[in-house]
Amino acid sequence: MSAKFSDHSKGLILTAIGGMTLTIDIPLVKLANGDLWSILLVRTGTTLIAALLVWSLWRRFGGNAPKLIPGREGLAVALLYGLGSITFVSAVFNTSTANLVFILTFNTVFSALLSWIFLKERPRPATIATMFAMMVGVLIIVGDSVGTGSLFGDVLALASSFCVASAITITRASGKDMGFTALVAVALPCLVAAFMVGRNGFDMEVPWWIILNGAVIMPISFFCLATGPKYISGPEVAMFYILETVLAPIWVWLIFTEVPSRQSLIGGLILVTALVSHSIWQIHQGRKRRAAMTLRHSI
């Protein structure tokens, strides 16, 4: 019992560190005060260097490092994560932080729909109800942006959510280890950004914020959130992803006085409430199943 409790505690600590670290991603992008392509170039370039360095050290001293891009499925996943990175950073420049992080939670709906269509994993009624509630929340947020410049950014945020959900679905279908694939996938946006910077020039006032983001923040958050499922359940890990949804707009509000609109707060509240309620329900159902299995084995 103590070993299980120790593993569970380790998982909670890891995912809490990963979730909290991820919350400062968007504020760091804004603090750099640069143009889209310059920030994307430095952010993805430093992430790629950090990932390759860690992988090389793992391969040299560990001897059992996973493949960077495992086969055709790995190429598809890398392409999707790369496109997701481009649309994410572009959305930072074209919509509010609150809209962005609220809409990004919609990747859970996309994941459920794609799993239903391609993996034949029919969602439970409670999941369908949660998906419907989240759709309502996103429609409220996006509806508030109609006729304004931020509608384009909201669409980019939805595209980023869809790319990540598609990558997750392919990963689950393949059963391959894609641990480093999401990190090396930044090579695609890095090349695109390098081309655009070569044409338009480099423009960033404080590049150290983005170097910190790409070299430290992103690797730490991805590593911790990817390792957490080894020790705790998926729904529990998902709870810590919500930290960015809740805290990132607060950090941006405190630093930049960027106040979310009333419609954005209403839609975001619906999204977070639906997602948290569903995650708690999943955790409860999982505990009931484990208790039932323990009872059957003891009889």
Topology readout:
Elements: H1 2-22, H2 25-31, H3 36-62, H4 71-92, H5 97-104, H6 107-118, H7 125-145, H8 150-174, H9 181-184, H10 187-200, H11 207-227, H12 234-256, H13 262-298
Helix pairs in contact: 1-11, 1-12, 2-11, 2-12, 3-10, 3-11, 4-8, 5-8, 5-12, 5-13, 6-8, 7-8, 7-13, 12-13
Task: Describe the structure in your own words.
- The chain is mainly α and 299 residues long.
- The chain has one domain.
- 81% of the residues lie in helices and 0% in strands.
- The protein contains 13 helices and no strands.
- The protein has helices at residues 2-22, 25-31, 36-62, 71-92, 97-104, 107-118, 125-145, 150-174, 181-184, 187-200, 207-227, 234-256, 262-298.
- Mean pLDDT is 83; it is low at 1-5.
Task: Provide tags for this entry.
disordered N terminus, 299 residues, mainly alpha
Query: Would you tell me the structural class of the helices and strands?
Result: mainly alpha
Tertiary shape = globular
Strand content: under 5%
Given as residue ranges, the uncertain stretches (5+ residues, pLDDT < 50) are: 1-5
Secondary-structure element series: HHHHHHHHHHHHH
Helix % is over 70%
The mean pLDDT is 83
Count of spatially separate domains: 1
**Number of H/I helices:** 13
